[in-house]
Specification:
By secondary structure, the chain is of the alpha/beta class. The protein is built from 12 helices and 11 strands. The strands form 2 sheets. It has a 6-stranded parallel sheet with strand order 8-7-6-9-10-11, sandwiched between helices. Strand 4, helix 4 and strand 5 (97-100) form a beta-alpha-beta unit. Helix 3 runs parallel beside helix 4 (85-94), helix 7 runs parallel beside helix 8 (206-213) and helix 7 crosses helix 12. The protein is globular.
């Protein structure tokens, strides 16, 4: 008889991608297991092509409706990888054995507020793997997964013939302002190099992308706010190199084992959310010696110190040298 397991992670893009090793390891290591995954409806495209998920449950702000839907499934186990009030209410109502991610919120608060770092040197993926260890599931160390539906691969025939097929993808995106490298810093990198760049991001990065585009030549292709998340993932998959802020596409790039230069502003690699098992040529870059970093575990809409040195002092020559070396 099959066992049914519900995995819960509502958001965001990167966090959902980071759950992929847990999904795969459960499916491959447990006999006759049926995996259900609960996430927000707006994130369904991240998971709908995942072959290890048997059923996707979508939450659209009506908690009572999703609870009624889940109660019909009679799950054997719940793996709560979000561990917030909403997932707590769901677990209470389903009344089955549950294992929940330990979020280390107090230790993160100490690092952000007082710069006291007592966090374990453990990636969030490995902490999520600890959550399923009681089921006998172990980390296969094969990294992250990301599956693009065939119909959502980017149609590369739309790119002008004059634009090279070997390119660097620059991920401008970042949910919060303090996680985004400013346009003038990107321009400092681009103007040092004679390689093609594709700009990726959403509606929040349109202005940033236009500012870069208008000050560069034919070596920059701006696709900001023109693609679905899976089309953006397709651009990342086919890129030679990735330059990215601490954001969801950075983790998707890690799933494709790309060479990634990740740029850290108000957040920090010490929080355990770096590109997981990325290509060994990948590099993490942050401004050293700032006593105000990190100022947040998720980012801010503005710099609380008003100087924004964590991004404005980024060494763009080092970024350009890394691109030049690895391209």
């Amino acid at each position: 008889m099959n066992s049914k397991i519900l995995i819960i992670r509502f958001s965001s893009i990167g966090d959902i991608v980071l759950t992929s090793p847990i999904i795969r390891c459960i499916k491959e290591q447990l006999d006759q297991v049926e995996i259900h995954f609960l996430t927000k409806e707006k994130h369904k495209d991240l998971l709908r092509a995942n072959p290890y998920i048997d059923h996707l449950h979508l939450y659209n702000s009506n908690l009572s409706d999703i609870i009624k839907q889940l109660q019909k499934e009679n799950f054997d186990y719940i793996i709560d990888l979000h561990h917030n009030l909403r997932s707590h209410i769901i677990k209470q109502n389903l009344r089955t054995k549950a294992y929940s991610l330990q979020k280390l919120n107090v230790k993160k608060w100490l690092l952000v507020k007082f710069k006291i770092n007592i966090l374990p040197h453990v990636h969030i993926v490995d902490r999520m793997m600890d959550t399923v260890a009681p089921l006998g599931v172990e980390n296969d160390n094969n990294g992250l997964d990301y599956f693009i539906p065939k119909e959502e691969n980017y149609p590369f025939g739309q790119i002008p013939d004059s634009f090279p097929r070997k390119y660097v993808a620059i991920v401008l995106a970042g949910t919060y302002f303090t996680k985004r490298l400013p346009a003038k810093k990107h321009l400092e990198v681009i103007q040092q190099l004679d390689v093609p760049f594709i700009l990726l991001g959403g509606k929040n990065e349109v202005k940033l992308a236009r500012e870069i585009e208008k000050q560069t030549t034919q070596n920059v292709l701006n696709l900001c706010n023109k693609l679905t998340i899976n089309q953006s993932a397709s651009i990342v998959k086919n890129a030679t190199l990735i330059v990215a802020n601490d954001t969801g596409l950075m983790h998707i790039a890690a799933a494709f084992k790309k060479k990634i230069l990740s740029i850290w502003g108000s957040t920090t690699p010490e929080l355990g959310m770096t590109p997981y098992l990325a290509h060994p040529a990948s590099k993490k870059q942050k401004v050293e010696g700032l006593n105000c970093q990190p100022c947040s575990k998720i980012g801010r809409h503005s710099c609380p110190k008003k100087h924004f040195r964590c991004m404005l002092n980024q060494n763009t020559t080092e970024i350009a040298n890394w691109i030049n070396k690895n391209f």
